[in-house]
Write a structure and sequence with these properties.
This protein is mostly helical. The chain contains 34 helices and 8 strands. The chain folds into 4 domains: 79-92 and 438-582, Arp2/3 complex 21 kDa subunit ARPC3 (Orthogonal Bundle), CATH 1.10.1760; 97-121 and 375-409; 144-349, no CATH class; 599-713, no CATH class. It is 64% helix and 3% strand. Helix 7 packs antiparallel against helix 17 and helix 8 packs antiparallel against helix 12. The relative contact order is 0.10.
Length: 716
């Protein structure tokens, strides 16, 4: 029980000024029965003293009341029976006009056509059109940006090759009548010890004075090289020395030395580990080509690249196919000894320069679908449609249904079986409800009953986008994630048996609904719920895309074709989230629901009632904030609904606004109104009236019942 000794004035003054009032208030609140007799009105001083002492005693443990008759009605078997009947009647519509002679069943007798007919098999036609639409080959187009980049890279590589060749010097560096091209190539690339040995042999008549007369090979053995190239070089140099002057011969030796130095420098740059990207395509064979051969190679490589890029290189082309195409192109454009270098250069530079033309691909896919002719089934009068005991095919069923021979009617066996399935689903919901949310009211069951049939109703009207995301968000935010996940899962299972719907649509919607149901109860603002709606849309579109790609054989073609459909399906999931976010405030008011978001909004100090309380009864408002802090901390420690406790304690004393000065926290050190009244009965009425007036104010401002319950219950 709440007494005046919990207010802000000193306890000693409070006990002195309200001694009798507290005793009478205790008597009135706990023992008041509505028909007071005179003996109670004339309570002795001793009784008052005993009642006053009772206020100091710890209260007895309160027994929680049993569920009221009204709450038990919400759980009556009639409500569950209504749920089973209504869900079965709405979701079992496929059993109302179901053919007995359906595809896959055996014909009870031989059935003949009563007259000539030509009937379109719309189901088969649509399947073929869908296959043509999703299996079409993507249209490719040249990517000019990529092509220009490849041309630029090739030009840079060729320019770098020119720079390396200039560094190594022109080749041949002497007239071929003096030294053959093979000898010049050997002299330029031979090792230093070989060159020094050659000079020593030429210096036999002391015409030349090399740095040393005896040259040692790297293994320490003094011997001249034993190869034909060395002998050929010695022979040609001796011959030239005999036929020319000493100055001409010295000039030749000097040109050979310069050529060797340039070649060695270029070779070192090619061999560096950190060589530039533009020269990694080359090896020493670049320096072995003559100037004329290199010019032909440069021109041929450029022409081959232009031809290949004009034809286009598609993404995913195997490297061996690209290399074969390069070989064919350069075979007639470059010298034979430069083919290896050209192939290596083009293979490393050329990249795919074809991209998919999405608009043209879509247009051709639609053309391919429209080009599929309607699948027609022909039959003549008296011709057998299906023989007795023969399995009915799709074409047979089309004819039977056209002639009215499929025996359509209510499939009672299927309907009863589906009713049993619905009953099982309702029982599962009841078990989960008892475990995670046992205090659902009748109006809560009605809300579930209104939300559940919406999914099959959309399917009946041909809408492919299920509203499972909206149901998951609403149930998850209104009640609990476990209940939301249960509802979405059960609806998915029931829709699977009750409707003919693409499994990729259903699974994508179920994934989005499960995500929304699991996360909605954790959101604490409309903004967070809106962001969750975006995640729900992305999940629905992503799952739809993945399922379509997995189920299709032509993955490359389907990726571009289905991507737009996946985007639309994701947008549909986001739209259902927007719908759920928009209607949730109305459902909260209509069904008297409290969600974390609504409780956070009600706890805003700028709400009308709280603003009035802060203005008209500031002491009570400060007391309310203090109590709310204590209650919130206790609820958090006990793992109770913190948002509900905070909001309820903020509103529990709004009734004190009917007479703020009747409560000592608002007197601010002024005179005590109850001393002036000097009537304990009237003072008790003022104190008790803040409960009834608080309930009136709460109803007037349409506070949820869960919040209104704090007003009388906190009095003990």
């Amino acid at each position: 029980m709440k007494t005046l000794n919990s207010l802000t004035q000193p306890i000693t003054q409070l006990r002195r000024t309200t001694k009798h009032l507290r005793a009478w208030l205790f008597f009135r609140v706990f023992d008041y029965s509505g028909d007071q007799n005179s003996s109670r009105c004339q309570t002795s001083q001793r009784d008052l003293h005993e009642q006053h002492l009772q206020l100091r005693l710890p209260p007895k443990r309160r027994e929680f009341p049993k569920p009221s008759l009204r709450s038990r009605k919400g759980r009556s078997p009639a409500m569950w029976a209504i749920a089973v009947v209504s869900l079965t009647s709405v979701m079992g519509n496929r059993f109302y006009n179901q053919p007995k002679l359906d595809v896959g069943k055996a014909a009870p007798q031989t059935i003949r056509a009563p007259y000539d007919a030509s009937v379109e098999d719309s189901k088969t036609t649509e399947e073929k059109r869908k296959a043509a639409r999703t299996g079409s080959v993507p249209v490719l187009m040249l990517d000019n940006t990529t092509t220009q980049k490849i041309d630029q890279d090739l030009q840079e590589a060729l320019d770098k090759a020119d720079e390396l060749r200039r560094m190594s010097g022109s080749f041949p560096f002497a007239e071929t009548t003096v030294l053959s091209e093979a000898t010049q190539r050997y002299l330029r690339q031979s090792k230093e010890w070989e060159w020094q040995t050659l000079l020593a042999l030429l210096d036999s008549n002391n015409t030349l004075k090399p740095s040393t007369a005896e040259v040692t090979s790297p293994d320490g053995v003094e011997k001249p090289p034993q190869n034909l190239a060395f002998a050929q070089a010695v022979s040609e140099l001796k011959k030239y020395r005999e036929q020319s002057s000493s100055q001409s011969f010295s000039a030749l030796i000097e040109s050979i030395s310069l050529a060797r130095q340039g070649y060695a420098q270029a070779l070192r740059q090619l061999s560096e580990p950190v060589a530039a990207e533009s020269i990694r395509h080359y090896d020493a064979s670049l320096l072995e080509l003559s100037d004329g051969a290199w010019q032909d190679t440069r021109k041929g490589v450029t022409q081959a690249s232009n031809r290949i890029l004009t034809q286009g290189i598609p993404p995913g082309l195997p490297p061996n196919i690209l290399e074969a195409a390069i070989k064919i192109q350069i075979s007639t454009l470059v010298p034979p000894d430069a083919e290896g270098l050209a192939i290596q250069l083009l293979t490393s530079i050329l990249q795919p320069n074809l991209t998919e033309d999405k608009e043209e691909t879509k247009r051709r896919a639609e053309q391919a679908a429209q080009a599929v002719k309607p699948e027609m089934v022909f039959v003549q009068k008296g011709e057998v449609i299906v023989y007795a005991h023969q399995e009915i095919t799709q074409a047979d069923f089309v004819l039977l249904d056209y002639f009215g021979l499929s025996r359509r009617g209510i499939n009672w066996r299927g309907l009863v079986g589906f009713a049993g399935l619905v009953t099982g689903a309702v029982c599962i919901f009841w078990l989960v409800e008892r475990r995670v949310h046992p205090n659902l009211r009748r109006r809560d069951h009605i809300l579930h009953l209104l939300l559940s049939p919406s999914t099959p109703l959309l399917g009946i009207f041909g809408v492919p986008y299920t509203d499972l995301p909206a149901i998951g968000l609403l149930v998850g935010s209104f009640y609990s994630p476990a209940l939301g996940v249960t509802v979405v899962g059960l609806l998915t299972g029931l829709v699977t048996f009750s409707m003919v719907i693409g499994w990729e649509y259903l699974l994508a919607g179920a994934a989005a609904g499960l995500l929304g149901a699991w996360m909605a109860g954790r959101m604490r603002s409309r903004e967070e719920l809106a962001l969750l709606g975006g995640a729900v849309g992305l999940t629905q579109g992503g799952v739809y895309l993945i399922l379509n790609l997995v189920s299709s054989a032509a993955v490359g073609a389907v990726w571009y074709t289905v991507l737009q459909e996946a985007a639309l399906y994701g947008l549909a999931g986001f739209s259902w989230s927007v719908v759920a976010l928009g209607i949730s405030p109305y459902l909260e008011r209509l069904f008297d629901l409290v969600t974390p978001i609504r409780l956070a909004e009600l706890s805003n100090p700028n709400r009308p009632l709280l603003k009035r309380l802060a203005t008209e009864a500031p002491g009570t408002f400060q007391h309310t904030l203090f109590v709310a802090s204590l209650a919130e901390a206790a609820a958090r420690e006990l793992h109770y609904n913190v948002e509900l406790v905070r909001a309820g304690t903020l509103y529990h004393d709004i009734g004190k606004m009917h007479d703020p000065l009747g409560f000592i926290e608002n007197q601010m050190g002024g005179p005590n109104k109850h001393d002036e009244i000097d009537d304990p009965w009237k003072s008790a009425e003022i104190i008790k009236k803040h409960v009834t007036e608080g309930l009136v104010m709460a109803r007037k401002h349409q506070l949820p019942k869960a919040i209104r319950d704090f007003i009388p219950e906190h009095q003990g």
